[in-house]
Amino acid sequence: MNDIRRTILWVIFGFSMVLLWDQWQLNNGHKATFFPKPEAVAPASPAAPAAVVSANGVPTATVSTPASPGQVPSAAPTASATPREKIEVVTDVLKLSFDTEGGSLVRSEFTRHADFVDSSKPFVFLDQSASRVYMAQTGLIGGDFPTHKTSMKFSGERSLKEGQNELSLRFESEGTNGVKLIKTYTLQRGSYAIGVKHEAVNTGTTPVSPQLYLQLVRDGNKPDGESAFYSTFTGPAVYTEAKKYQKVEFSDIEKNKAEIDKSSPNGYVAMVQHYFATAWLLADGIQRENFVRKVDANLYAVGMITPLSDLAPGQSKTVNTQLFSGPQEEKVLEALAPGLDLVKDYGWLAMLSKPLYWLLDKLFSFIQNWGWSIVALVLLLKIAFYWLNAKAYSSMAKMKAINPKIMEMRERLKSDPQKMQQEMMKIYREEKVNPMGGCFPIMVQIPVFIALYWVLLSSVEMRNAPWVGWIHDLSAPDPYFILPVVMTLTTMLQTALNPAPPDPMQAKLMWTMPLVFSVMFFFFPSGLVLYWITNNILSIAQQWMINTRMGVPPQFNLPSFK
Question: Taking the complete model, does pTM exceed 0.85, yes or no?
């Protein structure tokens, strides 16, 4: 039995060393030796948009629509005299690239957010490259009308000048079957929300009934820099007032099992990943059909379709939309649209996480350091739960005081388990000790601390936020593993201060589990590790104080692993 236990411990230790080595390799720019990440699947080029709508409102593959009697078919887009061009536009927070094919947004860089892998470069979000496809597209369906594959002519400014608060970009198509589409993008200083005005003009001689589609197309690969030790959602999301926030896994789209609210007069569609999101926003009261679909191999779309009503010859119809593409800053998202803040996903503990984020943000407003704000927040929580903790630690202190008596009794009656159990319950009654008394007060607090965990994991404010000295990014692991080592030591000290379980095997597990748990924190964001260390230190201080007050001398329970 002892050999088996030693073997298990060596396996745990060996696995920990393997993980440490792989992380060391990654931090030094090499591939992991033992657990390399799978190569990113090259996304297919996005297919053309829907030219017809299926019965359920989801765009289907491109179909050439026959011309009506007497209607002159429009020229093919490739025959346009306007050459295809990438238009680069710069504001104080964004560097964008638009394609004159469709006037689509095909690349975005966030100048105030560094890349996950190379912090000397700006973070690239939307992209159209060999390793990443992620674009925002719009166009008209319901006939052979301009789409995001139609050539457009650009006019407007390309950079936000000093003292200028907004700039406008205009993309105008030629008439396709008598319908012209004009897109006007309006970018504002300091904003990740872009106003997008769509104007459909009937330049033909017959009435038309186009529909406007807004879609986000993305490959199914995980974002660069994702941790293997915790999981965050990447994929489409749809929000309506009726069904609220609905996340859709790429795998569900692949299997045709995606379930969303398909028809609604409100809400938005989005593509979500850790810290960032893109969303098409349409004003409330405008009826729309929501859809998710597979565009091509490893390429997926989420979007909405809204009718523009009948357009008589010479008439036009304008629809104002917004395209948000930026960091998940909670206050900004709340101000843009109802429910948009839900793309910052707290899961089922949102009702606890949101007030905790609010408090953390208030602390930062006068501390001006996110690391110290985390420390202050944990301190406030410990104060709020002081009496619950005091009750738990008092119960633990009593258990510790009678532990020698329990151990002596177990040794004396080890051949009679039934009598041992009766004698143990008798000691608990005589000493007025509840063996579960230390558990319930702590169990009550667990949801709060899990909610805080999700706040720190989800908040983009932690990205590139320094704390002290060597910690330059609270969203990244400690580069020298100092915080995880401190956390492991504080966890061990806290375990040593707890009363040892009477059962030797339970005592060994009480030590083994925290050590295994601590290994994961070597690769967790520094902000999370800092929060856990602060909680450990404050818990140790309170436990030590209560033990001293109750006359229980400091005693470290160090089990034997023989």
Answer: no
